[in-house]
Amino acid sequence: MKKAVIFDLDGTLSDSIHSIKYCADRAVAGFGYGPFTEKQYQYFVGDGAANLIRRALAAGGDEEGVHFEEAFAIYKEIFRDNCMYRVAPYDGIRELLAALKEKNVKIAVLSNKPHAETINVVESLFGKGYFDVIQGQKENVAIKPSPEGVFQILGQLGLTAEEVLYLGDTSTDMKTGKGAGAFTLGALWGFREREELEANHADAIIGHPLDALNFL
């Protein structure tokens, strides 16, 4: 039996596309770009906040990122105050987490969202101390798809990659889990499609959070 599940945050635990769109639209609006659709933002996200803003600017026509530094600074300020804007767990997530705790399976979060905001979102949704490890984007730790964050979590839990499931909704997540040597589960309720998860070699793909229990 697996001893831990490492979760992606945006698009896996939390339906956060409204928050991302709200903050990024405001960040680029002053340069004449946007607003963009939620579907567009589902493909802008996944590789950290800096890449989110670069992609939004490029979609607006600033492909060289001329306005990146200024827009990114604005985004970070807006996001600090609005990271919980209309954010909620996906249906079935609370039930999955409760079932894992009943089985004494550790739970962790690994996100490319900035670390402080990752903690804010997770603790706002699920309570302080509910997760065994929460890790967002930190200085000197490579963002996903590097497996470095997974290895740090494994070290804190005292586990090996073979003892965990890695659950996420994007190609970045599948690459991260695979790179660490974990069993990767692709989530169909998130931001991306089955084809992307299959193309990036998900070990299994599930349509509802509770389906993850079948792979423990």
Commentary on this structure:
Helix 1 (17-29) crosses helix 3, helix 1 (17-29) packs across helix 4 and helix 3 crosses helix 4 (68-82). The chain is globular. Helix 9 links the parallel strand 7 (183-187) and strand 8 (204-206). It has helices at residues 17-29, 38-44, 49-60, 68-82, 93-102, 115-126, 148-157, 171-180, 194-199; strands spanning 4-7, 14-15, 88-89, 106-114, 133-137, 164-168, 183-187, 204-206. It is 44% helix and 16% strand. The chain folds into two domains: 4-15 and 88-215, HAD superfamily/HAD-like (Rossmann fold, 3-Layer(aba) Sandwich), CATH 3.40.50; 17-82. It has nine helices and eight strands. The longest helix is centred in the middle third of the chain and has 15 residues, at 68-82. The strands form two sheets. A six-stranded parallel sheet has the order 5-4-1-6-7-8, sandwiched between helices. The chain has a two-stranded antiparallel ribbon with strand order 2-3. It has 216 residues and is α/β, with parallel strands linked by helices.
Number of strands: 8
- CA(first)-CA(last) distance: 5 Å
Q: What do the pLDDT scores average to?
A: 97
Number of domains: 2
Write the layout of secondary structure elements.
Blueprint: E1 4-7, E2 14-15, H1 17-29, H2 38-44, H3 49-60, H4 68-82, E3 88-89, H5 93-102, E4 106-114, H6 115-126, E5 133-137, H7 148-157, E6 164-168, H8 171-180, E7 183-187, H9 194-199, E8 204-206
Parallel strand pairs: 1-4, 1-6, 4-5, 6-7, 7-8
Antiparallel strand pairs: 2-3
Helix pairs in contact: 1-3, 1-4, 3-4
